[in-house]
Design goal:
Layout: H1 7-18, H2 28-40, E1 44-47, E2 50-52, H3 54-57, H4 62-76, H5 84-91, E3 103-107, E4 119-123, E5 129-132, E6 135-138, H6 140-150, H7 153-167, H8 171-178, H9 185-195, H10 205-216, E7 223-229, E8 237-246, E9 249-256, H11 259-262, H12 264-267, H13 272-288, E10 292-297, H14 298-302, H15 304-313, E11 344-349, E12 352-357, H16 360-365
Parallel strand pairs: 3-4, 9-10
Antiparallel strand pairs: 1-2, 5-6, 7-8, 8-9, 11-12
Helix pairs in contact: 5-6, 6-7, 6-9, 7-10, 8-9
């Protein structure tokens, strides 16, 4: 891959990569040249008319790829205003990887807008546009509002927590800002109710999603970033991710993030072995405080049955009322793989979560539904 790229074109690719963006054509002839390279498999195209070398693209994280793509698209389409997850990434908010990929754009009632499978246009009546590092986006508060009224509960909590950190405000202040928008009562209520559950003390998306799962399943909400005095070395103390004070003792919850072992900003020059040894020592000191220490990974959090079982085994009370906005039996409007809320339905039957996804364009093209949305009586099969 990439061996057929001439030196001058390769240099341009490398420069674009250094600048954190993708390569865009400089002229019609250049566009044809890049398209030929793409068809040969020498270059990769994350979106129409933008390109990257596969060898460089493969080294990037999901978030880095999304940023490079969005920066290139902003240069290619200077009139675009990014919204929802796209704007959230550009603002530096936490966005789950699965919400990246689709391009989300803001549009106004008077604007002419076309649609495509990879572009999702969101109607925004009020002018709340700004820029993030020179790229046009919806404002940070507006971006959070649009995400939290449309996305699933866990993702919304994580996005809301990161919004509080970036704006240095409390959940009450975010609720007040959301109240100023003029969307439908149902959409505003959803965003407001989730905002009230957000917490600026959550330090990562993983911690936020773990707490959201606890809320969803009725577990006692933990104290975040609790200070624990070191019982072994006097004068030292630790901050723990989650803390429960229970009648029969205390429980400490620690999310084992991979980043702490590989991110140079967090390892401070230590090897992985040294970092792991320090973590073991920390855990032994925490245990000496008399508290039970519960460690879990983000993969454990995503495995709901395992995570619920872990919390239960450590004696975390499961007697809290689940907020309606977090209730799994509710029909929730959320965005998944570019499908808009009206195309999705979430329900619980016999304890099993069922999600139906309908691609309306495909269904219309296949004749399953008519243009007015009516399903013909002789065509009941829906293709997701």
């Amino acid at each position: 891959m990439g061996k057929g790229i001439r030196a001058d074109l390769r240099a341009r690719f490398e420069q674009a990569h250094k600048e954190g963006t993708c390569l865009i054509p400089e002229s019609p002839s250049d566009a044809k040249r890049l398209l030929r390279a793409f068809r040969r498999g020498d270059v990769f195209s994350p979106a129409p008319r933008i390109y990257a070398l596969p060898s460089a693209w493969d080294t990037l994280s999901c978030r880095q790829r999304e940023l490079q793509k969005l920066r290139a698209l902003a240069a290619l389409h200077p009139t675009w205003v990014f919204a929802e997850a796209s704007a959230a990434v550009l603002h530096g908010m936490y966005v789950p990887n699965r919400l990246m990929g689709t391009i989300h754009l803001a549009t106004t009632p008077k604007a002419h807008s076309s649609t495509s499978p990879d572009v999702d246009r969101i109607l925004i009546a009020d002018d709340t546009f700004t820029n993030a590092n020179g790229i046009a986006v919806t404002s940070l508060t507006r971006t959070a509002f649009d995400c939290m009224r449309n996305y699933d509960f866990c993702s919304s909590i994580a996005i809301g927590d990161s919004t509080l950190r970036l704006l240095s405000i409390t959940s009450n202040e975010l609720v007040e800002r959301f109240q100023e928008y003029h969307e439908s009562h149902r959409e505003k209520s959803r965003a407001v109710e989730i905002a009230a559950l957000c917490n600026e003390l959550s330090e990562s998306g993983g911690e936020s999603i773990a707490r959201a799962k606890m809320i969803q399943h009725g577990f006692m909400t933990p104290v975040l970033q609790q200070r624990i005095d070191d019982p072994v070395e006097k004068g030292r103390w630790f901050r723990v991710d989650f803390f429960w004070s229970l009648p029969d003792g205390c429980v400490i919850g620690e999310l084992d993030g991979r980043q702490k072992y590989v991110d140079p900003a967090m390892t401070n020059g230590r090897s992985i072995v040294d970092v792991m040894a320090d973590e073991r020592l920390r855990e032994s000191h925490l245990s000496a405080s008399g508290a039970k220490v519960m460690r879990f990974s983000f993969a454990d959090v995503l495995n709901t049955r395992k995570f619920v079982g872990l919390l239960t085994s450590f004696g975390i009370p499961r007697d809290q009322a689940v907020p309606p906005v977090a209730d799994l039996s509710d029909v929730v409007n959320f965005d998944l793989h570019g499908l808009r809320p009206r195309q999705q339905k979430l329900s619980v039957k016999g304890g099993t979560l069922h999600v139906q996804l309908y691609d309306l364009t495909r269904l219309r093209n296949q004749g399953v539904i008519k243009k007015d949305g009516i399903i013909p009586r002789d065509r009941k099969t829906l293709c997701a």
